[in-house]
Design a protein that fits this description.
This protein is mainly α and 429 residues long. It folds into two domains: 1-187, Growth Hormone, Chain: A (Up-down Bundle), CATH 1.20.1250; 189-420, MFS general substrate transporter like domains (Growth Hormone, Chain: A, Up-down Bundle), CATH 1.20.1250.20. It is built from 19 helices and no strands. Helix 4 runs antiparallel to helix 7 (159-170) and helix 10 (201-227) packs parallel to helix 17. The longest helix has 30 residues, at 335-364.
Length: 429
């Protein structure tokens, strides 16, 4: 693994730097929206612009890669992402910020597709899983570091946006300097939503709800914390804990899901997520003033941070659980296509998540954030219990749990060691 990771340094540094910028920009805009007195629903709408762009880019980028190549696509869209950060700094209004988030979504999914297809080209049958693990860790570590960078400057200033732009521009350097030729892009098919639902109703419904949850949590957590009168440092630490807790819990949850009925793991994890969300409301307070008073006690604040971290630890592995569960019911040669279908369903949910969650925050004040998450988790849990009663356990030795980022594309899914074996790639730098 070390050899191939070393040979892929340009890709990892490039995508890692992009994730640092992404983590900073996403939360920066959420906090700044509160400072600018944007309504919560307005914030939810412009935050969903990212996922709309992501959804569109996932369909158009493969065609573009085939025409002009990986390096040009990566360079072009990293530059566009840099431009979107400057756009947000200059024009502080909801319309321009929606456009900015839309451009960022298209740009980042394009960079994901390029990186994952490039890594897949470099992978062999022996190291695919290890490369995927390294990629997963780099993505979320970069995201967490970006959230900590919120402390560099006041969100009311333009400097944080300039930093985002600089980081995105720097991400180009290692990619453009790499000596290795870019791989040929391989078109990957997907299973239709209807067929996917017939194969795995729980995997389909859970993926849609997971998209709602994931997008709402990462888009509006900073908004919640800011409205709850958290300091900038406290908000950044809370976001960092949330991100890294999701990484830490992947291993234990994956191990248990391989040992027992996968549906039980999904149900247990999602109900625990609802449980931790409920107690986050209790320890967070019922309104802004109570929230502020409650966190004056250090123990209460620490407990709230722990609850949110535990919640994230249950929430982030859900996409990987959905993928593994769906693969339990499909032959090995369709694993990548099934994953692509689930990602499509996840994307539809992700577009809606910030908007619907912001409506709950409008109705129930900041506690609406957790109310929305609780409802989404309960839907998954109840449907999972129902499916366990009408369908027997599936035993598929080819399907095991693999930690994958929720942003994974079909090209990245081919790195999963459970997918059909490919020819070893013996290219050298």
């Amino acid at each position: 693994m070390q050899k191939e990771v070393t040979r892929s340094w340009a890709l990892f540094i490039g995508i890692g730097t992009i994730m640092i910028a992404h983590g900073l920009q996403m939360q920066l805009m959420g906090i700044r929206s509160v400072v600018e007195n944007f309504s919560v629903i307005t914030t939810g709408i412009f935050m969903s612009g990212y996922f709309t762009g992501y959804f569109l880019g996932s369909k158009t980028t493969p065609l573009l890669v085939q025409k002009v190549g990986h390096i040009r696509v990566f360079a072009a869209f990293a530059s566009l992402a840099s431009l979107s950060a400057l756009l947000a700094a200059v024009y502080v209004n909801p319309i321009m910020w929606t456009l900015s988030r839309f451009i960022t979504g298209i740009s980042l999914v394009s960079c994901y597709i390029v990186t994952e297809s490039w890594l897949n080209d470099r992978a062999t049958n022996k190291n695919r899983g290890q490369l995927l693990s390294a990629y997963f860790i780099i993505l979320y570590t970069g995201l967490g570091i970006g959230m900590l960078l919120l402390n560099v400057s006041n969100p009311k200033n333009y400097e944080p946006f300039i930093l985002v732009s600089v980081l995105l521009s720097l991400a180009l350097v290692p990619i453009l300097l790499t000596k290795r030729s870019a791989p040929k892009f391989k078109k990957i098919g997907t299973i239709s939503v209807k067929e996917l639902f017939e194969i795995s109703p729980l995997g389909t419904v859970s993926s849609f709800c997971t998209g709602l949850i994931h997008s709402a949590f990462f888009s509006l957590m900073a908004v919640y914390a800011t409205k709850a009168n958290f300091t900038l440092l406290e908000t950044s630490i809370l976001l960092f804990i949330s991100t890294m807790a999701g990484v830490i819990f992947q291993g234990p949850i994956g191990y248990l899901s391989d040992k027992f009925d996968r549906r039980k793991s999904i149900v247990a994890v999602t109900f625990l997520g609802a449980f931790f969300s409920f107690f986050a409301i209790i320890f967070g307070g019922e309104d802004l003033s109570n929230m502020y008073l409650s966190i004056q006690i250090p123990f209460s604040k620490i407990l709230f941070f722990i609850l949110v971290g535990l919640y994230s630890g249950m929430m982030l592995p859900l996409f990987s659980l959905n993928l593994a569960h769906t693969n339990d019911f499909v032959p090995k040669e369709k694993f990548v296509a099934a994953g692509g279908g689930l990602q499509f369903i996840f994307g539809i949910g992700a577009i809606s998540g910030p908007i619907i969650c912001s409506m709950f925050m409008e109705w129930f004040d900041i506690n609406g954030f957790f109310v929305f998450l609780i409802i989404a988790h309960i839907i998954i849990g109840i449907f999972g219990v129902y499916r366990m009663k009408i369908r027997d356990v599936a035993e598929n030795p080819d399907s095991t749990y693999t930690s994958v980022p929720a942003t994974i594309t079909p090209a990245g899914l081919e790195l999963d060691p459970d997918t059909p074996e490919t020819l070893d790639n013996n290219q050298t730098e």
